[in-house]
Amino acid sequence: MLVLLAVLLPCVFAQTNDTIIDALKASSREQTLVALIQQAGLTDVLATGGPFTLFAPDDLAFSKLPSATLTMLKNDTNALAEILKYHVVSGTYKMDDLKVNEMMLETLTGDQLRVNDYMYKRRITIEGATITYADKIVSNGVIHRVSQVLMPPKGSVVDVLQADGSFNTLIAAAQAAGLVDALADGPITVMAPDDNAFASLGNETVSKLLANPDILADVLKYHVIHGSLYSAGMHSEYLNTLEQDDRERLYASFTGYSLSVDGARVTDRDMSATNGVVHKINHVLVPSSLKAKIAAL
Description:
The protein folds into 2 domains: about 1-145, Roll (FAS1 domain), CATH 2.30.180; about 155-295, Roll (FAS1 domain). The chain is built from 14 helices and 14 strands. The chain has helices at about 1-10, 20-25, 30-40, 45-50, 60-65, 65-75, 75-85, 155-165, 170-175, 180-185, 195-200, 205-210, 215-220, 290-295; strands at about 50-55, 90, 105, 110-120, 125, 130-140, 140-145, 190-195, 225, 235-240, 250-255, 260, 265-275, 275-280. A 7-stranded mixed β-sheet has the order 2-1-7-6-5-4-3. A 7-stranded mixed β-sheet has the order 9-8-14-13-12-11-10. It is elongated and about 70 Å long. The termini are far apart.
């Protein structure tokens, strides 16, 4: 806990004439970012423009990117510049300014960054990436180090599900239950069973659910939580769902790096959307109150 506090508490710096670029060059942990900024032709912007807030992925964050993604960015200067500008917000937002859950910040690309303040874990995230070092004050703004490279969401939750390619049954179920519009609203968190999860129910059960939209809607609502809950903000806890039965709450269990929900394992997490976040799970979740109804179909 002492280590966590040391990471997250804002650091106060003396007045400096250093610019964003000066501060990054002086750091031993952002050298990949510096090289990419230079390659993208953004050095002058971050040295003379502003004031800006920069969410700066460190070298470790870049090492987490798939090698093919990093190679593509290095080979496409325009795409690289867009990704880097997605990390920059006009104006100075210190850590205290970011303690507003679900705040949206407009980046230099015109896209939005979602800020989440998870008070229980004393963490602030930007599109699910944790701020690990805060409030490096410079002459033309402020720098916050983040744990991941930020990538613009691929549209709404529905768009993210469609783009992934492994949620065809879930999309068909949402359409049959009349919930597509609800999944385009938000902010929401979707615990999304993939096609294999639905297949494990058996074709007959899936067909019966698709033919009974009211029961199907209640099952699907049990997978949807109000608000954006990224894995960085999760702990072992009960979660209220759109199913709206306080007796039927999801139980999230976080042990080490393993995350599960009602016993279903989260196999892919933090799939960011413009209206929330998607976590892929390996089982369809069924509230106790519906099990008998489904068995009787």
